[in-house]
Amino acid sequence: MEDIFRQGEDHDRQEWEKFRDIFESAPVGIFQSTIGGRFLRINATLAVMFRYDSPEEMAGAVTDIASQLFVDPLQRTDLIRSVLETDTFARSEVLYRRKDGSVFIATLSMRAVRDDNGDTAFLEGFVEDITERKHAEEEILKLNTDLEQRVRNRTAELEAANSALKKEIEHRKKAQGEITRLNLDLLRQKAALETVNRELESFSYSVSHDLRAPLRHLDGFSRILEEECASKLGEPGRDCLQRIRAAAEKMDTLVNALLQLSRMIRTEIDLHPVDVSAMAREIVEELAKSDPDRNVTVDIEGGVVVMADPHLLRIVMDNLLGNAWKYTSKNNDACIEFGTTEVTGKRACFVRDNGAGFDMAYAGKLFGAFQRLHSEAEFEGIGIGLATVQRIIHRHGGKVWAEGQVGKGATFYFMLE
């Protein structure tokens, strides 16, 4: 019999320990109180909720729950009446006052616990702080109200704009017809322009080709005169012949340049991935071998690969790097750089130098055939290189442009589609 009683006591103790663990660790405030308004038991969560340091402090400080904790003491009176009448949990939203005087909203669930005689022994309940939730609900309500008003306003605007939209649609239909007509005119003009360009290219090629024969004759007869009649011509005559031959050679160079430019227009584009960095290094090595006495600092960005015609891109890089090498020839600390940069969201390649540079006021002349911003006495050349560069880049569907400053160098950019 003693064992049975001991087992019963152990069971009761275990049940009490379970209750105590739940009571102390619950995420909501739990209490037991008298009907008169004093606390019998409080968990730590409730004490923290009311800004007390401990349950003991709160139980000792609060002697009248209704007047000290309820903003409206009658709420507690009404709730007690309800629980005494129903013998079930009564639930209500309550405005509470904390120890520091601040106010918060909570949900109070409370019931009456009766003794064996059916009399009310004490009250017990749960308190959950819902201040943040209430604020969130109020904010949502406000947002919904604002949204509804915006919808009404927008609906009114759309209805008001409906008539104007119909008129706009009619106007656009008429405009579309006009655009179609203009596009047909543009296509006809484009076809005519392409025909003219082909004829001009053919004419340029034919003229350049046909000029070579008389130039060869001029140079050949001048050479014969110089060799066979030099003693009869005298110094003035020999000087004139040398001038004639020099002019013929220059004219032959110009004709060859014209032919090269014409070929650039007629050459078919064959696109492949091209390692421009490797190409630039190869060109610079060739330039350095041709002018070993120069000391030039070269910076080439690695890993630059583009889709282009390898042969035509080589001509572009030959011209740009060759110009950079040439126009830094009078600079003791010459620097040449090849790299890439982002322009309007697209990658552009550039060749930069710190050479002679140019006045931006004349930038429009840079890419014209036989246009030069420096005299031949300063820097040799015939002014066809940049025109060739521009035509090749345009053949690739790209664009080329330049920036510069006199005496401080130039940067040439090109972008390929």
Q: How would you sum up this structure, described in words?
A:
The protein has 417 residues and is an alpha+beta fold. The chain folds into 3 domains: 2-129, PAS domain (Beta-Lactamase), CATH 3.30.450.20; 132-266, Signal transduction histidine kinase, dimerisation/phosphotransfer (DHp) domain (Helix Hairpins), CATH 1.10.287; 270-415, Histidine kinase-like ATPase, C-terminal domain (Heat Shock Protein 90). Helix content is 56%, strand content 20%. The chain contains 10 helices and 12 strands. Helix 7 packs parallel to helix 10, helix 8 (276-290) crosses helix 9 and helix 9 (310-327) packs antiparallel against helix 10 (385-395). The radius of gyration is 48 Å and the shape is elongated. It starts with a helix and ends with a strand.
Topology of helices and strands:
Layout: H1 2-25, E1 29-33, E2 39-42, H2 44-49, H3 55-61, H4 65-69, H5 74-86, E3 90-97, E4 103-114, E5 120-129, H6 131-228, H7 230-266, E6 272-275, H8 276-290, E7 297-300, E8 305-308, H9 310-327, E9 335-343, E10 346-353, H10 385-395, E11 399-405, E12 409-415
Parallel strand pairs: 7-9
Antiparallel strand pairs: 1-2, 1-5, 3-4, 4-5, 6-8, 9-10, 10-12, 11-12
GO molecular function, one term: phosphorelay response regulator activity
Pfam families: HATPase_c, HisKA, PAS_9
Enzyme class: transferase
